Amino acid sequence: GYDLSDLDMDTVAAYRNRFAAVKPGHIWTDLPLPEFLERIGAFGKNREEGYSGLRLAGLLMFGRAEVIRDALPHYMVDFQERPEAKAERRWIDRLVPDGTWSGNVYDFFRRVYQKLTADLKVPFQLQDGQRVDDTPVHEALREALANTLIHADYSGRVSVMVVKRPDMFGFRNPGGLRLPIEQVI
After folding, report:
1. Residue 123 clears pLDDT 90, i.e. is over it
2. What are phi and psi of 31, to 5 degrees?
3. Percentage of the chain surpassing pLDDT 90?
């Protein structure tokens, strides 16, 4: 029941630009928007019912928060930067779907990753004549944030939450493990 009008087109354009930058010359880069979205799995056909539309993943990734909440009433992503190394809930910076931005998962990832890495030190390093602005901490934060968002159960009542404090980075998502905790550890 959801279609292209439910998407935030600025988010889709940002994703397409990133896709083209990461995969220059890829065959999907120049496809019309509906075909591109179908190829990446955001749009598809329900072959049993005989209709096409956005898949839930496409809505989460590129939709507008108010539309996402039509499908998932308790959808909430939350970033908080806290000033001190203690568990109190005071924050100095917060990002939630408040109407000032799309509120979708892709935009949340892009905005939160910038906030997480904004004050990380980057030592001078060259690779093939190009400066490298990425460190193992950048990579670990990207991976933790991506895994938090990818493996979340957005149908529950608990929000996805990312916390930045002077002493730690915290990542919480609703859902269960597919593996026994012993095996995970």
Report:
1. no
2. -65, 150
3. 73
Question: Which pLDDT score, from 0 to 100, does residue 144 have?
Answer: 96
What is the rounded distance in angstroms from the CA atom of residue 13 to the CA atom of residue 38? 15
pLDDT band at 16 (very low <50, low <70, confident <90, very high): very high
3-state DSSP percent of the chain in helix, strand and coil, to 5: 40, 20, 45
Residue with tokens 């279609």: 3
Query: What is the mean predicted confidence (pLDDT) over 46-74?
Result: 93
**Planar angle of CA 180, 76, 78, nearest 5 degrees:** 90
| Nearest alpha carbon to residue 81 among 91, 90, 71 | 91
Task: State the pTM of this model.
Answer: 0.89
Total residues belonging to the chain: 185
Rounded to whole angstroms, how far apart are CA atoms 133 and 114? Answer: 13
Report d(CA 63, CA 56) in Å as an integer. 9
- Which tokens sit at 140? 């670990």
CA dihedral over 31, 37, 38, 43, signed as positive or negative: negative
Q: Which of 145, 163, 148, 171 is nearest to 83 (CA)?
A: 163
